[in-house]
Records
---
Amino acid sequence: MRHLVDTLEKNRTLSREEFSTLLTTDDKETEEHLFSRARDTATKNFGRDIYLRGLIEFSNYCKQNCLYCGLRRDNRDLERYRLSKEEILECCKEGHRLGFRTFVLQSGEDDYYTKEKMAEIIRAIRAEYSDCAITVSVGEKDEDTYRTYYEAGANRFLLRHETVSPEHYRKLHPLGMEIETRKECLYRLKNIGFQTGSGIMVGSPFQTIDNIIDDLYFLAELQPEMIGIGPYLPSKDTPFRDHDAGSVDLTLRLIAVFRLMHPDALIPATTALATIHPTGREKGILAGANVVMPNLSPLRVREKYQLYDNKACTKDEAAHCRGCLQRRLEAIGYTISEQRGDHVSRAGH
Ligand code: SAH
Ligand code: SF4
């Protein structure tokens, strides 16, 4: 069955049946071959460098009600917080001192941060840190708003599509949220010029292998610059509290499959993966990921940004995480890069 991996590497795609076999086979040798080819592809493009992104979770208010997420509007058991522009700039200052050259501004969908307020925050970071990339991850917005962020100096945007199947999407979201809106947002972002990230949760409630294969084809069409995939993890404060977490193994296989389909993409070994397995980040890197996203948020708010339960590293200072990650990555033969790590198209490789 190793030939499926070789065909995927060569053609950057497979048939539905072939994808299904590769994602579900019990054959460990094929799995090892998949990880090994994905790892080699990442090394060929990025060497042994892993890019760092500093995550700043600046608000846990959210007007949306995604059924899987602990920040959802209807969760009354969560103490909400917002960071001021000054507090966000403090996080950047600490991050910059520690060698971070990308800041990721992430939040729930919080209308307190109007278009103008966000632009002001982005402009302030841009003015002080001209050598850094600014990534925004604040959900669905209109064209004008995205464009304002871009013109203020943001370079990248993360918006996972979660699942491309309309039926599955409706099972994960309340009435009124549609995959079509999400897709429009993604094409809008690409069109404006953002390096755009999308992706899925692996093992989200009701997800089938067929759904995942649709996601593989959708991302082949979208050609995102970044691909975020992590296991679904239950949050006690959501209607999905009793659903099982996603599988580590399937998450790793998908990282590897995405790496072979998108050799140049920036693929993080996610916090969710680190949460579900003590060496999840390392496993992600060894399956072809090339980005890590430690937390730069102030310690006092960390526990409140609870997308899911037991999130890894919520009690660790950024400096501690930086050191810990460096040791862990060096132990598997990788190093942390202090470059911005922009997406560079190496088409033709
Ligand atoms: N509000 C923004 C950004 C914050 S949520 C947005 O929705 O895009 C960021 C990501 O966290 C989501 O895209 C989702 O894929 C992930 N997430 C939310 N709840 C999760 C859970 N229970 N398990 C794993 N990942 C989750
Ligand atoms: Fe809000 Fe994002 Fe969570 Fe949905 S996934 S409830 S939009 S924070």
---
Amino acid sequence: MQKLLIQGGRRLQGEVRVHGAKNSSLPILAAALLGGGETVLHNCPALSDVDAALRILTYLGCEVRREGDTVRIESSSVTQNEIPDDLMHEMRSSIVFLGAILSRMGRAKLSFPGGCELGPRPIDLHIQALERLGAQIAEEYGYLDCRAEQGLTGTKITLAFPSVGATENILLASVLAKGETVIHNAAQEPEIVDLANYLISRGARIRDAGRSTILIEGVDRLSSTEYTVMPDRIVAATYLSGAAITGGDVLVTGVNPNDLESVLPVFEQAGCRMKVEPDRIFLSGPGMLRPVSGPIRTMPYPGFPTDAQAPLMATLTLADGTSMFVENIFESRYKHAAELARMGADIKVEGRTAVVRGVEKLYGVPVEATDLRGGAALVVAALAAVGETRISRVEHIDRGYESVETAFSSLGAKIRRV
Ligand code: EPZ
């Protein structure tokens, strides 16, 4: 089991580039299954979740080749319509393959995605939507068996909740369906726009991705394409959190500040100075962080992103006052609070609310990453802690951060992997 050793107390300085977005790469890789042909995907991050998706594509029959941060997928000879258990359990978000396999093969068999650290991960919205598109879905002893032998037919779908994954599955299932599909209450995350732009670059007809009503006109085929994945906005927020908590001066490049329009004001309220340009954000952390008064409520985009809750919580543990979070998206996404408390943080969790009372110092102690963003929060806290922090279960962090130790070392942190 690998660990990260971090010697805290050094102000981060310098420039770091943000890698491609995990949560855009994954649905785009699933979409590469559609319609055969070749997808050349640039800025595809080297993450364990992305590797898992590439293994699924290979298993299904695609030819997959990685050349640095470019991945080539040739999907003309897809032969399988089932994702085996071991591959399903490697990555929770494999559910995003359902719509693509169903559209391509007319049938899809996969096991229910296991629950994960964030609580149960229901897929009722995915199933209801695909059934409305004409799929017959049988659920038996942990398996989903989906059929659409007559193909899929466009229709009107209203999502009870603007689910990112369900919106993605509907896009993947409807671009080659017969007729028009309208999605009401669609997720508006930038990753949805990136997926739609990839599909449009292959000839799909999609209007208003990024708005709450998306229009898809089914087409007969999709062409090959070359596409570049958007930058990872949550990784950018994590680097900025490290700069804020250490009182550092950091330039984050290759990021789209518009994707962080509900996160940057929180850094400002905490006393950070920022300079924002179209593809970069400079952040200078204050000597003493200020608390963020109004509760920080996680919401569907364009609200505050749930994935940034943990890193920002870590930052505010050292503010000179009390901040508050309300986690509205996932049921139990505060597991990192207990680990931060072991480092000396004062955090009270009551259901969906977490009250963070700022403390003078955090202390380096052995802690354990509980999930991807919770693990990132421990790295942020360790950068400012007194002494050495040992973080175990680093595999959680590697799911969403390309070599986190290299990125923070390049900013002057004393961090190494053992
Ligand atoms: C995506 O997960 C992201 N993952 C998550 O990032 C992110 O936190 C989440 O969107 C919200 O932004 C990927 O893109 C791979 P949802 P997803 O469907 O699609 C409930 C990270 O750290 N729900 O919008 O699973 C669900 O339980 C990860 O990178 C249903 O009830 O998110 C949750 O409470 C973590 N029924 C809420 O909706 C459904 O059918 C949001 O889920 C689907 C979802």
